[in-house]
Specification:
globular, 2 domains, 67% helix, mainly alpha
């Protein structure tokens, strides 16, 4: 049921967006993916002026990675851009099944498992990224399935699956490989039965992974995985490294969706985008959920916390505030942990959300230049802060009355 709902929704959004955009790729990344996949498919079919016609000779070139996956989908289905997006959307929808199974393996119960699967399967950010032909939905699904193998399988098998996933991620988004490696370390123990898995990881790291990750040690602006494959850490909108520019933290937390960057981004339609609201609400509920998840060493809790932290740290140290464009994976991870481990009642959860929204709105109003205040945003800040204050006072008095000692008369 979870997969059916997620798959139906993903495919419907893909078809709707494709029809509204007349079949054209909307954004620069998508244009590049479509063009590169065209070249790869033409090479395989023998219609390309390129000399190479084999997959192995394309490895390491600028066309390799996500465009090659799109090309495989187009080649297998004998279709075009829409066929590839549809296949990738179905693959992304399987992430909902992985989230469902992760919850069950972690012993969180059927209701929480269903809720976790549906939340991941209906994530607004992933739905739109998939509809635009971008990679976040596929990556999220790959990460969730890898985490499931790490939690459920024997350690040696988990190591093999993780190494394969890491090698795939290195050609799509290297920071995701760091997430999986850190998550696997959270499960490692100094025991004899873990020796085989540790040897597998060490050998694969030395042969396949380390040569590609060594340039990351210096955090260079431009890396070369292989000749002709640059990885630019500054991003399309430049880099606002949060370690050097902490004032950009507001942009990271409240960055508009999807790609607008600059003055005027505090407009109502961007403040009210559902994905941003869900992200902020998840942050408001995160402290308690993360503490409970960290204590779960047998389920997905600690592995997810360690992996997500490594992923966030990598981007904070490189892309900085531009990281909000890649935070859809963290959004799903955080939602998963909140659903699985949050012990708060709905009333207390809403109180925390209101307080957090009020604080963020207040800071965003005075933040410059990337969130230029508008009259509408100022009224939003005042309203959110007033609502937060009201909720705090009401629930504060109720809790105070509930815990007030009663006089016992004799």
């Amino acid at each position: 049921m979870v997969f059916a709902v997620a798959a139906l929704l993903h495919v419907c959004v893909v078809l709707l967006v494709h029809s509204q955009t007349y079949g054209h790729a909307l954004f620069p990344d998508a244009w590049g993916y479509e063009l590169a996949s065209d070249r790869i498919v033409m090479a395989w079919r023998g219609d390309s002026p390129l000399e190479t016609r084999s997959l192995s000779s394309l490895v390491g070139s600028a066309m390799w990675g996500y465009p090659a996956i799109i090309a495989v989908c187009r080649f297998v289905t004998d279709g075009g851009w829409l066929a590839a997006k549809t296949v990738l959307a179905l693959l992304a929808a399987t992430g909902a099944v992985a989230a469902y199974k992760l919850a069950l393996v972690s012993g969180r119960g059927l209701k929480r498992a269903t809720a976790a699967g549906l939340l991941v399967g209906t994530s607004p950010s992933l739905l739109l990224w998939d509809a635009w032909g971008l990679k976040d939905g596929l990556l999220t699904s790959l990460v969730l399935w890898s985490l499931l193998f790490q939690v459920r399988a024997r350690f040696s098998l988990a190591c093999v699956a993780t190494v394969l996933s890491i090698c795939t991620c290195l050609y799509i988004r290297p920071a995701t490989a760091l997430l999986l490696a850190a998550a696997l370390l959270a499960r490692a123990r100094f025991r004899r039965e873990y020796l085989l898995g540790s040897l597998i990881i060490a050998g694969a790291t030395a042969v396949f992974i380390l040569p590609r990750l060594l340039p990351l040690i210096g955090l260079l602006d431009v890396l070369e995985i292989k000749e002709g494959t640059p990885l630019d850490f500054t991003g399309g909108y430049g880099s606002q490294n949060l370690l050097s520019n902490p004032q950009y933290l507001v942009t990271l937390l409240l960055g508009p969706f999807p790609w607008m960057y600059g003055p005027g981004t505090a407009s109502p339609e961007r403040w009210l985008y559902l994905g941003t609201v869900i992200w902020i609400a998840s942050l408001a509920l995160a402290p308690t959920a993360l503490r409970k998840a960290w204590a779960d060493t047998t389920g997905v809790g600690r592995a997810a916390v360690v992996g997500a932290s490594a992923y966030a740290a990598m981007y904070i140290a490189t892309f900085g505030s531009s990281f909000y464009r890649q935070r859809s994976l963290l959004e799903c991870m955080l939602l998963l942990l909140v659903v699985l481990y949050l012990p708060l009642s709905p009333a207390r959860a809403m109180m925390r959300v209101h307080v957090w929204l009020g604080l963020i709105a207040a800071v965003a109003v005075v933040h410059s230049p990337h969130l230029t205040p508008t009259p509408w945003s100022k009224w939003l800040a005042v309203g959110a802060m007033g609502l937060a204050l009201t909720v705090v006072l009401v629930y504060g008095f109720r809790q105070g009355a509930a815990h007030r000692p009663r006089d016992h008369r004799t």
